[in-house]
Write a structure and sequence with these properties.
Elements (H helix, E strand, L loop, with lengths): L19 E2 L6 H18 L5 E9 L2 E8 L2 H5 L4 H11 L5 E8 L7 H13 L4 H14 L4 E8 L8 E8 L8 E12 L2 E13 L21
Parallel strand pairs: 1-2, 3-4
Antiparallel strand pairs: 2-3, 5-6, 5-8, 7-8
Helix pairs in contact: 4-5
Length: 226
């Protein structure tokens, strides 16, 4: 029987850090649900801006939100008008003072969450699932990924019965804690039903464990990823 664990949760404190960085006893429940609401609202509001990750950091009555996007221009808008409008709307969801930073994802082709979302969008446009999965694998390897695995499950191609399809290229060492593996998941909402899309991307092995933590520097990778 396979005992599976989340590839990011397994590496927290080793080569990965938390997406929400704060500590609180009395307001823990309130802040936790605020974080969930903030992420859900921003993701739905900016669904066309290719949001890869949303990091939240709190201190007393202030909350700083870092939005990682492959298309930051859509969020920023003309002369920063988009960010100001977003800040006012997000402020309604929390009693803390909100600060928003927009950060660019330079290589969307090797970001696991964006790859999964791209595959899901193709499935919703009724592109052949095999073509979408294979193209994502080839593109990621072309842009420098050490390894990639993509997985789709559901009524693929509108079939009567659900099934799974996956492709892999390169190395995906899931049991190696020092391996920097990005993981992304989303769902394609097709007329036949929801199709789950998962993506794992291996970017190398981190040997400098000081790179973990909220104020980490850029991690140092091995040359060959071995």
């Amino acid at each position: 029987m396979g005992q599976k664990t989340h590839p990011i949760g397994l590496r927290l404190g080793i080569v990965k850090t938390w997406n929400s960085r704060w500590y609180e006893d009395a307001k823990y429940r309130q802040w936790l649900h605020e974080d969930l609401d903030l992420r859900r609202y921003i993701k739905n509001k900016l669904h066309s801006a290719s949001i890869a990750e949303i990091n939240i950091e709190r201190a007393a009555d202030k909350v700083k939100i870092d939005i990682f996007s492959a298309r930051p221009g859509i969020i920023i808008g003309k002369r920063g008008a988009g960010v100001e409008a977003l800040k006012k709307e997000v402020q309604k969801l929390t009693s803390s003072e909100v600060f928003i930073n927009i950060r660019e994802v330079r290589k969307a082709e090797v970001n696991a969450q964006l790859v999964a979302e791209n595959i899901a969008q193709q499935l919703e446009r009724r592109i052949a699932y095999r073509r979408a999965l294979k193209r994502a694998v080839q593109t990621a390897m072309k842009f420098g990924a050490k390894g990639i695995r993509v997985h789709a499950a559901g009524r693929l191609g509108g079939a009567e019965m659900c099934r799974r399809e996956w492709y892999r290229e390169g190395r995906i060492p899931l049991h190696t804690l020092r391996a920097d593996i990005e993981y992304g998941f989303t769902e394609a909402r097709t007329p036949a039903g929801h199709i789950g899309v998962k993506c794992w991307i291996f970017k190398g092995e981190v040997y400098d464990h000081r790179s973990s933590g909220p104020h980490a520097q850029e991690p140092r990778f091995s040359e060959a990823g071995a």
